[in-house]
Design a protein that fits this description.
Strand order of the largest sheet: 5-6-7-3-8-9
Number of strands: 17
Helix content: 25-40%
Shape: globular
Structural class: alpha/beta
Number of helices: 16
Length: 511
């Protein structure tokens, strides 16, 4: 059992309260998902739960956590920089459990993770692995330690669909407790039996945490129904109050008029007026009490609200891509695949899936290079690693307003506000933003540009389950072509018109 008592976390830079007086008991068998909009502090809370020292340099914390001697294991959202320079074998041998494991155990684990056993002993640097391969190696190390409590920050990022299905089964079958953050709605729907929702209300000035013991989809539907019911009741009460106050003001004005007109020579009329004034005062106090007891208008952290407004409709017959790649090699020169060909015409939405390490990102980089050079189309490429594209030392407002003009900065701030950036966050260096906030920034950049083609490597990987449905709708309505890599099953189903599986022998059409 893991218990958190009266925890308050305050971000030191802007003094924003992430959680306040937060309490949680995580029992054996709990599969709890931690959700919330981008930048709400989910990863910070997860780090504190594992080790408060991990956030001590940027967060002030009050509260404590207790356990009964259980072993905690933590999967960070990003592999620490120091570990990226280790070979896979060096990384694993630093874990005592790896040396204590016998070959048969390692063979079973590598098989379940769809990894070649030889990778465990490889001298390849951790930083050069594909995103999915890194996650698998980290998960292998975690599971070999036989923990009692799993703390997983985005375990579904970058892993292929087969490993996603393994991850679902692993979470469901894990005998201890699991607390995880994920943007994969399918994974959440299939595994979580508890939902912890972190919200930042009133322009991120007031935190709220909701904990429920129910499946995610049930929670979202119940939350929507409760919100609509409370909103209808609150609006109805306010309409009735408005009518009552109009009647009250007419009575009040009538009494005040009589008070000004009454003659001092009419004592009986004065007594009657005095009774009316007393009645009016009593009525006013009653309305004040009723106003204080009115149903509150509900607060809910809303999803993002942008659209691609500048795009022209792409002609259906326009040839966007006609590529043929006889041989595809990795940057290190290793053969990845042969006989790759891809044809895109008009506003098609293409998705490439495939096993981790097969070369999908290498392929899309090659294709992006071709498309970005085309003079007859305007393309935009978002890599899996945002640092490859975003200027980390620049702030979001100036990134969206490169001219620095007052008009452009005002427009940029308006767009950033629609994506739930606070005024402070608009002028923080981009490197200080969460992965989700960086993803939102790139989506904004695309929406503000006149584009024909989007080239997207894992486009939904950093959007919360609250934002992701809106993002999918935005991308589905894009009037140009999309070439993407994704393992997000809802994105593939709702956005993509064609899906190809990448293998060593080429691209195989699936739909």
């Amino acid at each position: 059992m893991l218990q958190i008592n009266h925890l308050t976390l305050i971000h030191r830079k802007d003094m924003r309260v992430l959680v306040e007086d937060f309490n949680l008991v995580l029992n054996r068998g709990d599969k709890a998902v931690l959700i919330g909009e981008e930048g709400n502090g989910k990863s910070t809370l997860m780090r504190w739960i594992f080790d408060p020292a991990l956030v001590s340099d940027y967060v002030d914390a009050e509260g404590f956590r207790t356990s009964q001697g259980e072993l905690l294991a933590y999967l960070p959202q990003e592999l620490p920089s120091a570990q990226k320079d280790l070979t896979v074998y060096e990384y694993l041998t630093r874990l005592p459990a790896f040396d204590l494991s016998d070959p048969s155990e390692l063979a079973i684990l590598s098989g379940s993770l769809h990894l070649d056993l030889s990778l465990f002993y490889s001298d390849q640097m951790m930083g050069t692995l594909s995103g999915g391969e890194r996650i698998k190696i980290q998960m292998a190390g975690i599971l070999l330690s036989r923990p009692d409590i799993l703390l997983l920050d985005e375990p579904s990022n970058d892993i292929d669909i087969e490993t996603l299905e393994w991850m679902e089964k692993m979470i469901l079958d894990f005998p201890g407790s699991v607390l995880f953050i994920s943007h994969d709605e399918t994974l959440i729907e299939r595994t979580a039996n508890r939902v912890i929702l972190m919200e930042q209300l009133r322009r991120k000035s007031r935190p709220r945490v909701t904990i429920v013991n129910m499946p995610f989809r049930t929670f979202m539907e119940t939350r929507r129904q409760q919100f609509e019911k409370q909103e209808q009741e609150a609006l109805s009460e306010r309409r009735e109050e408005k009518k009552a106050m109009e009647r009250f003001r007419r009575i009040q004005q009538s009494v005040e008029h009589d008070q000004n007109a009454i003659s001092r020579q009419d004592p009986s009329g004065g007594r009657l007026l005095k009774k009316k004034m007393k009645s009016v005062k009593s009525m006013e106090k009653r309305y004040q009490r009723e106003h204080e007891e009115m149903t509150e208008l509900p607060e809910m952290e809303t999803a993002i609200t942008i659209r691609f407004d500048k795009q022209r409709a792409m002609p259906a017959g326009k040839v966007v891509l006609d590529a043929s790649i006889p041989v595809l090699c990795s940057p290190a020169g290793d053969l990845l695949a042969r006989n790759l060909s891809l044809y895109i015409r008009g506003p098609e939405k293409i998705c490439i899936i495939g096993a981790n390490g097969v070369g999908k990102t290498t392929l899309i980089r090659v294709l992006a290079d071709q498309l970005l050079k085309r003079p007859d189309i305007k393309a935009f490429y978002t890599p899996q690693n945002y640092e490859d594209l975003l200027p980390m030392d620049l702030d979001p407002a100036n990134y969206l307003a490169p001219s620095g003009s007052k008009e452009e900065l005002t427009l940029a701030r308006t767009y950033l506000g629609s994506m739930k950036y606070t005024p402070d966050e608009m002028f923080h260096p981009i490197r200080e933003l969460s992965g989700g906030q960086k993803a939102k920034l790139l989506l904004l950049k695309m929406s503000m540009s006149d584009l024909d083609v989007l080239i997207l490597d894992e486009p939904t990987r950093n959007f919360s389950p609250l934002s992701a449905p809106e993002v999918r709708q935005i991308l589905a309505s894009f009037s140009g072509a999309i070439l993407s890599i994704s393992h997000d099953r809802k994105y593939i189903e709702e956005v993509c018109t064609k899906v190809y599986r990448m293998t060593k022998d080429g691209l195989i059409p699936l739909q």
